[in-house]
Amino acid sequence: MKRRAAAACITILAGLAGLLQYTLLQMAIVSDLHRSRHLTRLNFFVSMYSSRNNQRREKSRARKPRKAWIRPGRTSQWWDNFMSGLMLEEEWKENFRMSKSTFFKLCDAVRPFLVKQCTNMRMPVSVEKQVAVTLYYLSDEGRYRKVANAFGLAKCTVSVIVRRVCTVISAVLGPQYITLPKTENELEEAVQQFYSKHGFPQCFGAVDGTHIFIKQPNKNATDFLNRKNRFSVNVQATCNYKYCFSDVVIKWPGSVHDSRIFYNSALNKMLRDGVIPPLYKHLTPDTEPVPVCVLGDPAYPLLPYLMKEFPGGGSTVQEQYFGYRLSSARMVIECAFGRLKGRFGALRREMDINIDDLLIVIHACFVLHNFCEISNDYIPQEDVDRAIQYDNEFQPPASSPGRQQSTETQSKKIRDAFVQFFD
Question: With contact defined as beta carbons under 8 Å apart, do 142 and 362 qualify?
């Protein structure tokens, strides 16, 4: 029995050994097969990569010579004639909307921020040419191709130049040329000059909104539709007695009401909180003292520091005469917009520039307007009249504000004091 059991165990062990040997052989075969497949795939990818590299080398060898920096036929001869003194003085104002002396004054003001270094590839665009490109773009249609052809530059180069120059003008010259009076002496001077020039007391300026038309934005396009179903940005501006802008708000879509823009503006907060001194004054002996104010149209709310006409023009002769004097004085902002858009015709058209950069370009136009006005550099009156007529035709009409603040009773008393002053 023991011999039989031992023989059976030996037989079983032999069978297991054979099975193990067979399994190991199969695993070796499978491993070799996988290794072979892996090597085959690796060889395939290496050959494919090498083939593509060879194709790229062949293409690079057969590649055409690099295109010129500027398209053939585009020259800068027209601009070179300006710099060489061949063009007449009036040509500067017709093409760049400012005199030759004002132009070079502007170049000197922005030169440290626009000057470029020479490279081995080509000479940089001069500061004068950069400024001229930007002014020529803003002066008329606001089209890159037209400017590129006039200055002998690539269209993409013109786009970069316009954005760069406008950014420098907005950031560097903006704080210098668009400022509100904050001290009592500055405010008293502004109030006295406004009364002397426009006949309205205790007033340092007028506020209004103007729509700058834009192309349809990619996002939230309906927010930019104004009351005339055109895409626009609603810009609020305040100007002083000499048609210079002292405050500009450029961030609201065309569908936003003027009163909402004013309620959220820094000007409203500064007048409300006394940052701009109120300078209370008695207009007549028997009336309450009134603070300094700005003038607005019927779209704005009646506030102690914001005067507007009576509803319907007024119910009495005295109220109607007050409305007449206020409207006459408020024309300063209409004329300021006319001078702005008469100088920079691109503001009357949809410029080929994205909405983010467009806001900077618009602000640069306001800064340049003040720069020219302060330099006593004016544009022809027919250009102003044409721009005002354009606004009267295409600007959305004013509408009454949707809400009033709790100071309406006090505001009416102050307006009554103005009525008695003009009576």
Answer: no
Sheet holding 245-253, edge to edge: 245-253, 232-239, 203-213, 293-295, 306-307
* Tokens at 232, concatenated: 């626009």
Neighbouring CB atoms inside 10 A of 147's CB total 26
Decide: pTM greater than 0.85: no
pLDDT in tens, 306-320: 999 999 989 999 999
The DSSP line for 186-198 is HHHHHHHHHHHHH
Q: How far apart are CA 8 and CA 13, in angstroms?
A: 9
Q: Angle between the 317-343 and 355-374 helix axes, to the nearest 10 degrees? A: 100
Q: Which amino acid is at 364?
A: A
The token pair that represents 167 in the structure block:
């950014």
- Tell me, what's the pLDDT at 219? 87
**Among 243-247, 287-291, 400-404, which stretch is predicted with the lowest mean pLDDT?**
400-404
- The set of residues, in sequence order, having a beta carbon less than 8 Å from that of 300 and lying 6+ positions away, is 207, 258, 259, 262, 306, 308, 401
Cβ partners under 8 Å of residue 331, min gap 6: none
Task: Note the pLDDT tens digit of each residue in 337-386.
Answer: 999 999 999 999 888 788 889 999 999 999 999 999 999 999 999 999 99
Residue in this structure with the two tokens 């132009």, named with its chain if needed? 103
Place of tokens 């010259």: 173
Under DSSP, is residue 235 helix (H, G, I), strand (E, B) or coil? strand
pLDDT grade, residue 392 (50/70/90)? confident
Distance of alpha carbon 307 from alpha carbon 415, whole angstroms = 7
Contact 341, 237 (CB under 8 A): no
